[in-house]
Amino acid sequence: MIRRLVLGHGALANVAQAGAGAPWGWYPLCMRQGWVVLGAFWKRGVLAAMVATVGCSDRQLIGEDGFHAFAITEDTPPIFVSEDGDEFFLVEQRIEFPIQTPTDRQMAELEAMATEPFARMPWVVRGDYELEIDYVLINLDDAQREVAVIINGFNEFHEYVPGFAEGEEEAVADFAQFERIVRLEPLERLRGTIREERLDEVTVDLATVVNGVTNANLVMHPENEQTDPRIAPFVPAVVPALTGVRMGLRATGAGNVLIELTIRVRDEAGKIVPIDRMWELPEPELIAPADIAPPEG
Q: How many CB atoms neighbour CB 270 within 10 A?
């Protein structure tokens, strides 16, 4: 018997609010040619070094930008508690990309060119822009902490929402589309980068998982490649680009860990616009591993 938690829109909103009230706000930076940096900054000023790293140089400004920041704290409630008392903590921030709004004529043309498994051709496709994420993890405690930096993406059609499952032996989290487990020493600050090729995998995996597979965790497993013969036949001919991501921190113990990040977008097709002109994105269908898992038995 497997007990499973699946997060819907309401639960996602609660997860996103778990870090609300933390001391951060918006800070305008400049955008470099081909790259837009999106987000918010922590008011205590710990991002000074990163500002120097991603600040203005020889690249053209193409819109507004900044940093994102959120945290798991000692006051964050567990998102899932197993029957044995094991606790999972999760805080996420949903970030939409500022994509150009299609005209009515363009949307009609897309709707006339349906491509499986999507109801129409996507407005933005893989390769229109490339993504890269820089982050800083900060352990605010005088004790060692272990967290997973996770990413789950969404496009015009679908949003991937892994949950938690409890089997006979232990409770486990479904694989996120990207996850990196990090052990932080007391008061340690650790930098990292999630490069374009890893985020391209997130893009393709999201399109693949809705195209007839029967095991979502097989597709999302960090060691499995898109060329895996169990996965490759399900990669669609047309892959929608990500229209946003849910960045998250996941842990199995309470603590105080902050993440600060920037998302850079290299715009190859002119689809990234200033935030005040961005497309009001369609609401995607939530896809959980339990929705496409093979039947038990």
A: 10
